[in-house]
Amino acid sequence: METVVHHVESPIDAYDLAALHEAIGDTFSYPLPGTRLSCYRTNGGVPHKADRMVSHLGARVSTCAAHEEAAAQTAKDYYDLHGA
User: What angle (nearest 5°) sits at the alpha carbon of residue 9, between those of residues 67 and 23?
Assistant: First the structure.
């Protein structure tokens, strides 16, 4: 089952993140301009830059656009195992 990932503007803080989940739903992503984070998936073992963050009810995974849906599923799986 494919996870629908809504795109939003970057949240300002944890309260903004919570408000976005309340308004939009369980899963969304937002841009990470100028970040030093890596995508949670590597290219043949070589990390590459993340340009988005996926949040599922506050469980977040840094990702590139190409891996956004898989990152959303990973965030959901993490939330289901551990909570946010």
Answer: 100
> pLDDT tens for residues 51-84?
999 999 999 999 998 999 999 999 999 999 986 5
**pTM for the whole structure:** 0.85
Nearest 10 degrees: CA dihedral of 43, 50, 69, 20?
170
For residues 34 and 56, is the Cβ–Cβ distance under 8 A? no
Alpha carbons 52 and 64: distance in angstroms, whole number? 6
| Cβ within 8 Å of residue 53, ≥6 positions away | 29, 30, 32, 37, 60, 61, 62, 63
Phi/psi of residue 56, nearest 5 degrees: -115, 105
Question: Cβ contacts of residue 6 below 8 Å, gap of 6+?
Answer: 24, 25, 27, 28, 29
